[in-house]
Amino acid sequence: MKTLLLVYLCVYVAWGQDNLDYDDGEGTTVDARGHRPLTKGRDSYNPNRYSPAPVGGRNRYQGRPTTALTGQQVKEQKEHPDAGGCVHASDEMGVQCPTGCELKTTLKKQERDVKTTINNLKPQVDDLSRSSNNIFNYVNSMSNSLRERQRIFNDNNRVVGQYTDRVEEQHVYIKETVDTIFPSNIRVLQGVLDQIRLKIQKLERAIHTQDELCKEPCKTKCPIPVVSGKECEDIFRRGGIESQMYMIQPESGSLPYRVFCDQTTQNGGWLLIQNRLDGSVDFGRRWDQYRQGFGNIALDVGKGYCQTPGEYWLGNERISQLTKMGPTEVLIEMEDWTGSKVNAQYRQFTIQSETSNYVLAVDGYSGNAGNGLLEGSTELFGENRTMTIHNGMMFSTYDRDNDNWNPGDPSKQCSREDGGGWWYNRCHSANPNGRYYIGGAYTRRMAKHGTDDGVVWMNWKGSWYSLKAINMKIRPYFK
Ligand SMILES: *[C@@H]1O[C@H](CO)[C@@H](O)[C@H](O)[C@H]1NC(C)=O
Predict the structure, then answer these.
(1) 232-476, superfamily in CATH?
(2) Cα 458 to ligand 1 centre (Å)
């Protein structure tokens, strides 16, 4: 009996070491999960939907005058009197919090999960003392909780850093113990468990402290530049040639709001509408929040003005308004975890209004990231590929399903499974608003629903690689 157990254990350990970087799929070589294949005879796929063409017509701007910019200087006001920091233009977006109040919320949620897991572990350890067979389950739970925690603990908090290292040490230690002195040393495991409990209490106290700090809105000095305009191209032409946060007012009569302008890439004039770079903002949000926008427009990292963009979604209302003003191009830039960069650019990009659920229309691809939005995933073929085209799709969030996967069936909703709001078809070749995974490679097991819910651009890195950074910026199209 003992020998048999040992054999099992060895097999288990060998498997356990592999399963973090290897997907135990159905043995296929290409495991492209972006689509939801047809279950033959039980459902069908209709790719044809009404999709308006992107806004064309006259350009709002002629080419850039070559000399216009030299005379003007960008000056900045000392500080907005009422500002007190980078308060977002609309109240719903809250106050910027570069010290990580958002992270704190995530952390707190996670801490609760871990605590529950640990509590569940306790009786299991007791069981172990009686029946050594249960050791398998124990190590299994331990690995799961560790993997789960690794997935979500992606912040720079020192306390958590220490905590993570120690739990990892404990995990290694437990595995060793199980290997060598199995099964006589159950009591050691109980001690370890108690230590983990202590550490969680410490973490709880740290979170409580941060809670207190976060009661007051965090404040940063974010002077508003004197130059403003209709959008970032307008600002550029008025002399705002530094990349930073600006106030814009696309149409007279609407309220001005803050955006980040990239005034350097491809001669500038780009208005940032989406940005991911460190996972600090949760993108799994409701329809209303995607409509209004969320996240941090810009941060001051010590230079006295807000020249570093934060993670944010500008908001579908604003994106729609800006792209319907005239021909608009979009530039999607992305970066992997080794620092390689590629981009995809569309000469035409329009988001219709909310009455048509913000239908996406793009055209005129160029770039080296792959034309996922128009052609779908090149890993897939036939209908499977068509299912991953985003052009012509409506916007979906987890509480508002407008995708093309069995419309009306509440169990078949792309946004619920794939982590963010997006123009899902059935479902995606690109998922820029997906879950943020530190390090890139992730697996079916790590994903909440077993789907490729990461920050994915299939035509560059496939389904199981979550990008380090991705952003989308728009500019009025001109020659
Ligand atoms: C579509 O995907 C399913 C499942 O992945 C596969 O069985 C089928 O052969 C694919 N169809 C095509 C045309 O590649």
Answers:
(1) Gamma Fibrinogen, chain A, domain 1 (3.90.215.10)
(2) 17
